[in-house]
Design brief:
alpha/beta, single chain, Collagenase (Catalytic Domain), four-stranded mixed sheet, 176 residues
């Protein structure tokens, strides 16, 4: 990959350390590398074809903070599992992409309580759900979306392929 992608992970809630049986920061780094490399290898991503230094921020937080952000930025008065704030969607990002230095690709915020509850409801591990939501967030930062059916299919196929390299089952499989 031509880009250097720097990941900054902030643990905003100790539940991410106390109640998981994996190193969430290490897994985030591995998933970041895998996701960005996989998309770059496809060769069709405009940003990843440039030799740029990109910064990605991940915040491991909780329902209270995600609820606040979801209400403020999406107008939804409830927590959610993951929020992604992609700078690639802003014209200013592209206007400055040729500048030297680091470029902020965006932020991902995960809620421990919602992620944990969903994993239990789906009868999957917290680890598998965490990996899925993080890959999902990284793809959003790269400009992928799931608003239209054709976009959703592309994004979901990428998620399934990337997660399979981490030995995680298809999260979209029917009945789960």
């Amino acid at each position: 990959m031509k880009n250097k992608v720097i990941l900054d992970v902030i643990v905003d809630d100790d539940k991410w350390v106390e109640f998981v049986d994996f190193d969430a920061i290490k897994v985030a780094q591995e998933l970041k590398d895998l996701t960005f490399d996989y998309v770059a290898e496809g060769g069709e991503h405009e940003l990843l074809s440039k030799a740029k230094e990109l910064n990605v921020n991940v915040c491991l937080s909780n329902d209270e903070e995600v609820h606040r952000l979801n209400k403020e930025f999406r107008g939804m008065d409830k927590p959610t599992n993951v929020l992604s704030f992609a700078n690639i969607d802003d014209d200013e990002f592209w206007n400055n992409i040729e500048d030297e230095g680091e470029h902020e690709l965006g932020d991902i915020i995960l809620s421990f309580e919602t992620l944990y509850q969903e994993a239990n409801e789906k009868n999957i591990s917290v680890y598998a759900h965490y990996c899925h939501l993080l890959v999902h967030g990284f793809l959003h930062l790269l400009g992928f979306d799931h608003i239209e059916n054709d976009e959703a299919e592309i994004m979901e196929d990428l998620e399934v392929e990337i997660l399979s390299q981490f030995s995680i089952d298809n999260p979209y499989k029917e009945g789960e």
